[in-house]
Structures are given as C-alpha cells and as structure tokens.
Amino acid sequence: MQVTDKPYQEHRVFAELQQYMNFYEQLAISVFSFATMGTKAICNIDTYVYSSIQGTVESMRTILLAGRINDAYALLRKYYDSAVINVYSNLYLHDNFSIESFIVEKINNWLQGKEKLPEYRVMSQYIRASGALKPINDVFAVDDRYKRLRDRCNDHTHYNFYRHAMLNDNEIHIENRGWWLNRFAEDARDIFILHLGYIFFLNNHYMMSSDHMDALECGMQPEEDSQYWVAPFIQEMFDVVITPRRPDVTATIKTNSAMQLS
Q1: Of 39, 191, 14, nearest to 101 (Cα)?
Q2: Is 208 helix (H, G, I), strand (E, B) or coil?
C-alpha cells in the first residue's frame, strides 16, 4: 500500500482521530468553569491540557496522512504520557487538597514552572496504587494491552526494530502499511478510553451538561436533577467509542457516579 493510494488516505484512522480532536476541543471548553481546587489558577487547569492534547492528536493525524507511521507512534507515546500526567495531577489534587492544605504545592509549583512532575514510571505507579481509583484500575488491569501498547510506542520511538525505520519512509512499497494503520487506530482508541475512563471516574462532574448552570445564570430554577445530566457530546462518545470497545469501563463509571450516563 502506498500513502497516496485511496485506501490509505481514506482509512478509518483519520476520521477517528478527527473525532478525538473535536471531542477534546469541546471538553476543554466545557470544563473551563470548574475551578481547580488546590491551586492558585483562576480557571480550570485541564482546559489547556485538553487543548494541548487536541493539538497532539491533530499532529498525529497530519503526520499519518504524510505516511510517517513511525513518527506518528512517537507522538502516540506523547499522547499516552499526556493522559497519564493529566490523571496523575487530578488524582494528586484529589488526595492532598484539604482545608489544612488549601494549596497543593507539588501541582501548584508545576503550574508555575518551579517544579517538575515525577517521571512516567512514578506517576503510573501512583495511579495504579490509588485506593480511590481501585474499581477502574481493576478494569484496566484485566489484561496486558496497555503494557503491549507502551512497548510498541517505545519500539517505534527508539528504532528497536529495523522495520520501524522503514515505516517512516513514505515512498517505498510496504505490504503491511494498512495493518499498521489498523494497529494505530486501535492503540489510539485504547489510550483515549484509558484517559477518559480515569478522568470521568475521578471527576464525574466533568460529564455534566450545561443545562443546570445555564438556568442559574439566567436566574431560572433549574430542572430537577439537571445537575446529573450528561452533556450530549460526552454521551455520544460513550455510545460510539467507549462502550462498544470497553463496556466494562462504562459500567464501572456508571456504578460509581451519580451522573445519568446511559
């Protein structure tokens, strides 16, 4: 398969990455009004994390369209890292914010450029050891897909096999280029599900529709239980992406949340 061929250019991976881009853009806007407790930030710090992730997904799509599959995998690892950083920072605030610790120094210092976050391995271990995340951790630990995914990203990033170098040449004929696009699509989806699974489990209010706040801002009485309504764009992503691939993730979030997720 050549990168200029119609089957390559019309592969499902490009539409799916566009879908994730659109989602992160909407999520960034929808969480803006939720204050990030434990920091001195005026707005929600995740807003700019999600817009940054949107940019990374856009870069992956652009590079894949150019036929640079190996480079796209290096960015996929960056996406994985970004997801883990986002989960870690939210979890650390969740664990350490209190009236006595109104400002969580580790995260606030990171925001101000005074302190680095721990390396990936330390953050990942912290997430896996969390009691608050145990139900969703048990779901994600049901198989080794994320270890294998991480290994694939590292193999591409470090040229661990010669074939990975060849996948960055968009002019040579490679029989299994379509297979790698399929593999990339599955890997990107699994990272997307990991990220949103953790975030919506930890911050279920991030799923909230704007109806409740809109009513209050207009001086109207909100409809009963409207604070538990899920935003349509989030429900759609569960219906189309998360639940079909990982119904166990959706079930765990629903069991542990008051939000009216279908």
Answers
A1: 39
A2: strand
Q: Helix 247-255 to helix 177-202 angle, to the nearest 10 degrees?
A: 10
Which bin fits 89, alpha (ψ -120 to 50), beta or left (φ > 0)?
alpha
Residue type, 179: W
**Exposed e or buried b per residue across 109-144, where buried means at least 16 C-beta atoms within 10 angstroms of its C-beta:** ebeeeeeebeeeeebbebbeebeebeebbebbeeee
Q: Return the bridge partners of 208, or none.
A: 230
If you search the block for the tokens 């914010």, which residue do you land on? 97
Q: List the beta bridge partners of residue 230.
A: 208
Chain centroid offset of residue 131 CA:
21
pLDDT recorded at residue 150: 97
Q: How far apart are CA 66 and CA 238, in angstroms?
A: 30
Pairwise CA distance, residues 40 & 111, whole Å: 9
Angle at the Cα of 87 (from 82 to 90), degrees rounded to 5? Answer: 125
Q: How many whole angstroms separate alpha carbon 161 and alpha carbon 20?
A: 29
Supply the pLDDT for residue 214. Answer: 60
With a cut of 70, which residues of the chain have pLDDT below it?
A: 1, 211-217, 222
Amino acid at 36: T
